[in-house]
């Protein structure tokens, strides 16, 4: 299958490209710079120089491929609403290019979605777009279903971990370094689902190959890890004490990250495992945090 991948040099996109190439697919990967393009080509794919704002380019590449996987997203949280709008425009453009084709369009979304019972399942739809929840990836993808596009969603946990991680775990580690101790918020049942990025890449490939229109998949190897356990692992890794802090101290300790540190987000992947035959094969989050590479920089 000829597959177009956005974010092909990114944290999840790069290993998704490798997963696809190793499975025998021919891949074209979107890259924003010459350096990123070189990394895409080194992985065995054809590099396509451009960005999510190049809508005509996205349309052309999606139309010429047998399937599209969208992993690109700008993670500058100071411009989050703007980045969510850019993401939706890109998804809608690729969807229009695929209209009437029945081709797969696999779109990335987040699994940090609040639910009434605390457990997010694949059957639970994303909340309506709002100022509090501006990301519209799922809505943009599923708006193409009436156009005969085989649109699907892969939800990623707040932490998609592994060696070289530049996401939430390094942020928490750096905060602990600066504050002199690792912390968790007392009285808050903060919990995150997690997945190793190699396991996440396999979900994207299997969704492309096996998924049906309207499917939502959860790339969640672990349903939820308590923030208290994450803080303990960070404390061990840095040789720092671990403390419980009061809710009114969270902003002073975490700064802009305070909201994420108090997330109560569990995600089941039971249906995903049955539908795709997916089983995680790589390290758990706490196993990863026992490795020195998380604490060497």
Automatic annotation (TrEMBL):
Start and end residues of each NAD-dependent epimerase/dehydratase domain: 3-216
GO molecular-function terms, A-Z: aldehyde dehydrogenase (NAD+) activity
One Pfam assignment: Epimerase
GO CC, alphabetical: cytoplasm
Gene3D superfamilies: NAD(P)-binding Rossmann-like Domain
SUPFAM superfamilies (alphabetical): NAD(P)-binding Rossmann-fold domains (SSF51735)
Protein name, entry field: Nucleoside-diphosphate-sugar epimerase
């Amino acid at each position: 299958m000829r597959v177009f991948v956005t974010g092909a040099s990114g944290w999840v996109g790069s290993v998704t490209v490798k997963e696809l190439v190793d499975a025998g697919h021919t891949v074209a990967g979107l890259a924003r710079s010459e350096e990123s393009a070189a990394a895409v080509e080194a992985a065995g794919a054809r590099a396509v120089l451009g960005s999510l704002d190049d809508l005509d380019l996205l349309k052309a590449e999606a139309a010429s491929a047998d399937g599209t996987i969208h992993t690109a997203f700008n993670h500058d949280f100071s411009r989050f609403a703007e980045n969510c709008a850019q993401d939706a425009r890109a998804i809608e453009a690729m969807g229009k290019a695929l209209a009437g084709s029945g081709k797969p369009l696999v779109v990335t979304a987040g699994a940090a979605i609040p639910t009434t019972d605390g457990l997010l399942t694949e059957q639970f739809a994303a909340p309506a777009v709002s100022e509090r929840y501006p990301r519209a990836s799922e809505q943009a993808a599923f708006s193409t279903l009436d156009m005969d596009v085989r649109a699907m969603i892969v939800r990623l946990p707040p932490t998609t971990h592994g060696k070289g991680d530049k996401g939430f775990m390094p942020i928490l580690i750096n905060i602990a370094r600066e504050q002199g101790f690792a912390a968790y918020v007392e009285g808050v049942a903060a919990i995150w689902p997690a997945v190793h990025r190699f396991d996440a890449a396999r979900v994207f490939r299997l969704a492309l190959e096996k998924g049906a229109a309207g499917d939502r998949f959860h790339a969640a190897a672990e349903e939820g890890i308590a923030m208290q356990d994450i803080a303990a692992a960070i404390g061990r890794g840095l040789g720092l004490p671990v403390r419980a802090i009061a809710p009114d101290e969270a902003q002073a300790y975490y700064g802009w990250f305070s909201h994420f540190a108090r997330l109560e987000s569990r995600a089941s992947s039971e249906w995903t495992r049955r539908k795709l035959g997916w089983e995680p094969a790589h390290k758990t989050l706490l196993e990863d945090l026992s490795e020195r590479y998380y604490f060497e920089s």
